[in-house]
Amino acid sequence: MKLNVNGSTHEVDADPATPLLYVLRNDLELNAAKFGCGLGQCGACTVMVDGKAIFSCLTPILLLEGREIKTVEGLGTIDSPGPMQQAFIEEQAAQCGYCIPGMMMRAQALLQSKPDASDAEIQVTLEPNLCRCGTHLRILKAVKRARELMKTAAMTPASGERKV
Amino acid sequence: MKFGRFLTGLGALIVVGVAGVFVYAWRPEIAPIKPPERASFDQALIEHGAKLAAVGNCTACHTNPGGKSFAGGLTIPTPFGTIYSSNITPDAETGIGTWSEAAFQRAMRDGVGRKGEHLYPAFPYDHFTNVSDDDNRALYAFLMTRQPVKATPPPNELPFPLNVRLVLAGWKMLFFRDGAYQADAGQNEEWNRGAYLVNGLGHCGACHTPRNSLGAEKVSLHLAGGEAEGWSAFALNGSSPAPVVWDKDSLYTYLRQGWHPDHGVANGPMGEVTGNLGLLPDSDIRAMSTYIASIMGEPSAERRAKSDKLLEEIKSGPITSAISNDPSSGGKGAAIYKAACAACHENGRPQPFGGLDLRLSSTVHAPDAQNAINMVLYGLPAANGRTSAIMPGFADVLTNDQLNDLLGHLRQHFTDQPAWTDVVQRAADTRNGKYHVSVRPSDGIERGPSNIGAEDQ
Amino acid sequence: MNAPRLPNVTRRNLLLGTGALVVSFSLKDHAFAQEGELNVPAKPPEPVAAGPKLPGSLADTPSLDAWIRIDADSSVTVYTGKAELGQGTKTSLRQIAAEELEVPPASINLITADTAITPDEGFTAGSQTVQNSGTAIRNAAAQVREILIQQASGKLQVPADQLKAQNGRIAGPDGKSIGYGEVVMTDMLHVDAQPKSKLKSPDAYEYIGKPFARVDIPAKVTGGPAYVQDMRLPGMLHARVVRPPSWFATLKDIDTASIKAMPGVVAVIRDGNFLAVAAEKEFQAVQAMRALTGLAEWEEKPRLPNEQDLPAVLQRSESEQGVVAEAGGDFTGGVKTFSAQFMRPYQMHASIGPSCSVAHLDNGTMTVWTHTQGVYPDRKAIAQMLGMPLDKVRCIHTEGSGCYGHNGADDAAGDAALIARALPGRPVKVQWMRDQEHLWEPYGPAMLTKVSASLDASGKIVNWKYDLWSNTHSARPGSAGALLPGQLMEPGYPPDKPVMSITPLGNGDRNAIPLYSIPNLRVLWHFIADMPVRVSSLRGLGAYANVFSIESFMDQLAKEAGADPVEFRLKHMEDPRARKVISTAAEAFNWSSNPMPEGRGRGFAFAKYKNHAAYLALAMEIDVDKETGKIRVPRIVSAVDCGEAAAPDSIRNQTEGGIIQSLSWTMYEEVNFDNTRIRSSDWSTYPILRFSAVPGTLDVHIVDNPGSPYLGVAEAAQGPTSAALANALANATGKRLYNLPFSPARVKATLGV
Ligand code: FES
Ligand code: FES
User: In the structure, what pLDDT confidence band is assigned to residue B13 with cuts at 50, 70 and 90?
Assistant: First the structure.
């Protein structure tokens, strides 16, 4: 079946019941979304579908035909990081970093639909995502920083054709 | 002029009528007091009051999520407008610190505030009127020894004339009968204790009894199933949708621990209720179960046989189905269930942390789809710092059509009930906020925000 | 933070380096190798040489070229036996090497733990990476620099003392210079380190102590391969293990034909009680694992202790007694004696990413990519388990998610190796499921402590007796019996017999000796050898419970003495650095004894980790809701002295993380079990701190000591955080909690109505 991931269409040869996470990680070789629990309890696997943050570990691909899937890889590259990525680098918001891609995607979904989300909203929104290293405060700082960076990015006319 | 005289007459009548209503409705202020010292209350009385407050689930309405206990300010959406719960901490300025015990007793018995104002029946004084003077005294002792919090709730948002409290006098005249609980001599003590708790402080009927268009409980349909906070509160009488029949013991277990192996975990607003009941002595919970079991009545032989057969079938494990490639709605629903739900709902992990075998689910057997929609969309969020069943919500994954396919399959595969026909519309209305669904962790006394993940309107 | 960024080393950087001048041997080409390992001709570590005591890990691996390599193109490669565990090692070690070698940190290729090419530095644990490896690398780097200068002196015809190393070149006063690559010669660095090095003085530092952006973060936030979980080798199979439902369970006969017939399934492996399945695709492996779980029948044995009665269970299980410390001997003095008992339950590492490993049996060599904390000990255990010679097993450290001690990493590596042995030629990736991680990792041991002390009339502590009951906190591999698959296979290797060992490093007794000056003191470890609940090292080891007990009790004594808790501590503290850290934290917090509003309290605690590592003091303010028992933490201020602050942001990051993690342990965490089974199998049954409970603010003040030795810092916060919380709770409510965790239910029950 066909999946639209980060703006391009991929033909995927997998059982339609396969959770999106496995397809992303193995078939499409995208590393960012992580396996943490497979139970919807930790958020390590969070990606975006049609602009909303979802647990990819519990989302069978059969639900996703024709929908827009976005992962951390779609937010920018190592050489040209998107605002969310830039913010996490600037704030050095990672210890082991395993939980971070999930955090970024949940935050991205929030800020995309609500660019002025309050600090409190950011904190509440991230509740489903766990971090064991205790990086929480830096993650919050990074998301607040991303809120600023995304606004600036939105205001400056598109430089280059990087899609964010 | 004839017409003029008529008008004058009518005017006079209205004046007299209004005056009459006013006289009927008027309640005096009860003089403020200085907030009493803790030492003025007996510790045993305070502790007794704590248990009663748990039965009354006071904290549920009088605490805002994340806010201080009993400081009020919770948004309570009603069909008539929005009400904000009051601060019932003993703060003198913003709480009930200046209320004498008499003022408190009157509020519980008659639904009248200290200053003589009529209270909105969102405060369930139609039930609390049953509470004995002694129990009110204990509740008063408990509340007056809480930590005072300075907090004023936002003003209610009610249209005219509902924002005029005098109107409530009319409502009371029509629907409210005051007076403490009178024991039924034909029943034993345990039953009477149960009835007292269930219909009094417990105010079970506030959710489990249907209401009329003016928001009053339909007395003739006592505990026949109602609605609360965007959830169906299942019938507690003979028409209970539970596939396995309830009895005294299973009700006891469920109320005691917040879950039962044959029924699953309490969720929605009920999670808060069972979370609170943890404080109660076993005997009180037994009494409540005894009373409710008597309301449910003896199931028919046929119903019992069906229930027994189901329990027998459950023992041999889940009915696993292969994923179908059938493109019909049912086929798609089966595929969704198999792929997204079965990993938890068919893995045999016991209650309360495992997914319930849906053959046992009252939610899937219920007359309407609301609870099933709520559960699938919003799940059971994790409780903070407490073990709790967690179910992820699928609001952002499933379209309304996919949800319809899924629920269609559940209904068809796990029940003998007819298909729900309004899933797509109901789901849309749930998402767009027409129904305010309060979402909570299981068996917890904390609330989450409403309609988590709801689409922006 | 706006810091210069170090690019991560890529394969290409390394391939550019040619003409290495050290003796080399060739490694097999692997499609995925640890950072920088690929195609690198490299030096195996030298055997341990006897000699004068060398600094840091140089003592075990003295040869300079085991640590540093310089190629003809002047590129610099640094080897460490330590692993990146999310603590920023890859960055801080580069900073340290760069400082002495006079090259930009970004230009250094850093190779971490790999049994084929890096020194054996044991475990990456005990917050000793910078202390041991950093010290070794720094000294080696300084000596290499001096050797380079000596060589250049000959080539440039300029006396050595007029030459300076600068940006990868040696320069003379006349502006003449020569690149490192031009002066290196074969085997030039193949010499043993000298005991003394010419280290740069702190005021000349360019990189040490400066905030540097971590090298690994950009890849981690853009989807680069960063973890063993991200490895994909050609032809790789996906495997899943099926564990027993409980410890001591044995597998009954099983017919796995139906599983073998499932789509994609390549093999079902059974070896005694070890059961696993391998498939072509990951989801196929998951489905097969589920089916196999349903099929397998186990005989269970109820051998776990009674969870409700842990203090008694621990006391009953005592098998040996050891004296940790003894001083004075007069326990009769003082005017008043006080005592208390504290309890810490079993707690988990609970990594966010369940353990994972890739193994490949190729041509008789087993290569295992693992997020173990010790590649060499893990190799030894795996070799023994497989009956293979040591040199046929290679373990390469590849990052996993944060581990916080000995979690399932080694076991997963063992799983992968055991499965890969059955499937020669095909790489196998084993990914544990969430419940497997929760149920099978070795937990931090439950501990019981009892303390009694007397105050004299002036409010000084005159004697102190402390007793602790605990298992060992160290059951790491070394032998096959330390690996789960080693125990489960047939015939199984029995777990190593735990032994009590009392050393300055500390184990269950870590931080059991108060740092305060107390004339008469006795500390005993009641050792428990029996471990029906599997335990091993969890961040901080015994320090967490010991500091919790000592620092809770110090507050209790301060209260009895009518003294302010901070003053009381200072009154008993001589160590000037400890005093400095305590007063820094107190001042920054604006500590006072003024009463606070109802339900609010402040608490203080201090410890010097292991009594020889970082000093950390911490003050916090909390709000307690009596009705729900919930604790909120609006404010935390800490001060830390870990010697020379080589990488301040990393110190800050780890301290913040340690504090938040300890808050989670302290407020919520406890492994539940019944007589047979562990009940804490996921995040719903083992809740940890979520965003709604993070502290409002958290400040870390670094007390820098330029030029003084590095002191391990990563675990320093675990103990003080728990005690500060206990003290704040007592301050807020007048009631003290002695048993961890301070769950809402327990707090509510303690406070009453
Ligand atoms: S891996 Fe999906 S929520 Fe944990
Ligand atoms: S940074 Fe390690 S789990 Fe969050």
Answer: low
In C, minimum Cα distance to A19 occurs at C283
Is the pLDDT at C36 greater than 60? The verdict is no
Domain B189-298+329-456: CATH superfamily is Cytochrome c-like domain (1.10.760.10)
Distance B380 CA to ligand 1 centre (A): 15
The mean of the pLDDT values for chain C is 90
Q: Return d(Cα B191, Cα B248) in angstroms, integer.
A: 11
Is B396 at the interface with chain A, CB within 8 A? yes
**Which among A74, A95, A123 is the end of a domain?**
A74
pLDDT, one tens digit per residue, over C16-29 is 223 232 322 222 23
Residue B426, pLDDT > 90, answer yes
Residue B109 CB partners (closer than 8 Å, separation 6+): B125, B128, B129, B131, B136, B178, B179, B180
**15-54 in chain A: CB under 8 A from chain B:** 15-19, 38-41, 49-50, 52-54
Whether residues C687 and B68 touch (CB distance < 8 A) is answered with: no
Residues C93 and C211 in one domain: yes
Q: How far apart are CA C76 and CA C678, in angstroms?
A: 50
Which residue has the least CA distance to atom 3 on ligand 1?
Answer: A40
Ligand 1 binding pocket, CB closer than 6 Å: A 35-38, 40-45, 55, 57
Of C706, C560, C556, C548, nearest to C618 (Cα)? C548
Cross-strand partners of C430: C239, C357
8 Å CB contact of B147 and C599: yes
Same domain, C195 and C232: no
* Chain A nearest C-alpha distance from C213 (Å): 7
Q: Which domain range does residue A113 map to?
A: 83-155
Domain hosting C24: range is 12-220
Dump strand ranges (E) for C73-145. 76-79, 108-111
Q: Does residue A55 sit within a domain?
A: yes
**Average of per-residue pLDDT across C457-469:** 97
Query: Contact at 8 Å (CB) between C255 and C300?
Result: no
Residues C592 and C687 in one domain: yes
Q: Catalogue the E-assigned strands of A6-160.
A: 8-11, 46-49, 52-55, 68-70
Q: Report the nearest atom of ligand 2 relative to the CA of A95.
A: 1
Q: Which chains does C contact via 3+ CB–CB distances below 8 A? A: A, B
pLDDT exceeds 80 at position C604: yes
Q: Which of B102-111, C550-559, C643-652 has the lowest mean pLDDT?
A: C643-652
Residue B199 binned pLDDT confidence (cut-offs 50, 70, 90): very high
Residue of A41, A54, A99 to mutate, ligand 1, most atoms within 8 A of C-beta: A41
Suggest the residue from C439, C624, C627 to mutate for an interface test with chain B (most B CBs closer than 10 A): C627
pLDDT tens digits, B82-138: 999 999 999 999 999 999 999 999 999 999 999 999 999 999 999 999 999 999 999
Burial class for B327, CB neighbours closer than 10 Å (0-12, 13-18, 19+): exposed
Q: What are phi and psi of C732, to 5 degrees?
A: -75, -35
Mutate to test the pocket of ligand 1, among A57, A100, A106 (most ligand atoms within 8 A of CB): A57
- Domain count along chain C: 3
Average pLDDT over residues C535-552: 97
